[in-house]
Write a structure and sequence with these properties.
Blueprint lengths: L8 E2 L13 E2 L3 E4 L11 E2 L3 E8 L1 E6 L2 E6 L2 E5 L4 E7 L4 E7 L1 H8 L3 H9 L5 E3 L2 H19 L6 H23 L6 H18 L8 H7 L4 H12 L3 H19 L9
Helix pairs in contact: 2-5, 3-4, 5-7
Length: about 260
């Protein structure tokens, strides 16, 4: 079936219409402990950070038209508002999914947001390979996470689950630092901060129809300087980033044009 004839469903919580009913959901965090294939999985746009943790087997899917495959002891990180499609799962797949709002993830990781912004938006570090110690940490944390979910541990269940997820995110952050070349000069750090703020501003808009000058003004810099910084940090200009986000929005609305429902904010 051609993708352009299929309905792309906005994120409404992981349900039988895209993945499956989650083991846990509180509005900012959704957890599926054992991903299962559903014969009627639709192209899906998630407005949350997508983290897939593979314990066994193989999981292949498209994100924004690019194919990714994760296998045993790998973690995939997907950026908010990406479109996922063409899901293929091996019979022995044991994969856990976490979908986290950008605001919750950033609050959990403060002040380490730049590390995740770089991973989420530069499209170079979506896939992480776990070290032996990271594998042990992952196994223990998911066991503790599911204990709190299944046993319904009381008044502070949400807080405890968020605390465990926060530790898990810091474990992923440690793996990220091993795959991202972090430069230390003051000038470079200032440029990275500006780039992170630009990407955050860009990704927070539902439709990226504003001109470059709009974003430069919001960030209190000139359009020329913003373009230079984006090129230095990401090898793309600010205009390239805006165009890429516009194309993603156009792709979503074209796929979604036959559906009466709208994307949730």
């Amino acid at each position: 079936m051609n993708n352009d004839r299929r309905e792309t469903r906005p994120y409404v919580g992981l349900t039988e219409h895209n993945f499956q009913e989650p083991d846990y959901r509180d509005g900012d965090l959704t957890i599926i402990n054992h991903l299962r294939y559903h014969p009627h999985m639709h192209p899906t746009q998630l407005d949350m950070v997508f983290v897939a943790v593979c314990f066994e087997g193989e999981f292949t899917f498209d994100m924004d038209g690019h194919e990714y495959t994760i296998v045993k002891d790998e973690i995939f990180i997907g950026h908010p508002n990406a479109i996922y499609d063409n899901f293929v799962m091996s019979k022995d797949l044991d994969c856990r999914l976490l979908c986290i709002t950008k605001s919750l993830l950033m609050s959990m990781l403060y002040p380490n947001q730049p590390l995740w912004n770089k991973s989420l938006f530069l499209d170079k570090h979506n896939l992480l390979h776990l070290t032996p110690i990271d594998k042990q940490l992952r196994t223990h944390l998911f066991a503790l996470l599911m204990f709190n979910i299944e046993e319904k541990t009381g008044a502070f269940q949400k807080e405890m689950i968020h605390a465990i997820v926060r530790v898990l995110l810091y474990g992923i952050s440690r793996a990220l630092t091993q795959q991202i070349n972090v430069e230390s000069s003051h000038e470079t750090n200032q440029k990275k901060i500006l780039f992170d703020n630009f990407i955050t501003l860009l990704s927070s808009s539902e439709i990226k129809k504003n001109p470059l000058a709009y974003y430069a003004d919001k960030l209190c810099v000139s359009s020329r300087y913003l373009t230079m910084v984006c090129r230095d940090v990401s090898k793309k200009t600010a205009y390239d980033w805006i165009s890429e986000y516009v194309q993603n929005d156009v792709r979503f609305y074209l796929l979604h044009s036959n559906s009466p429902s709208r994307r949730l904010p």
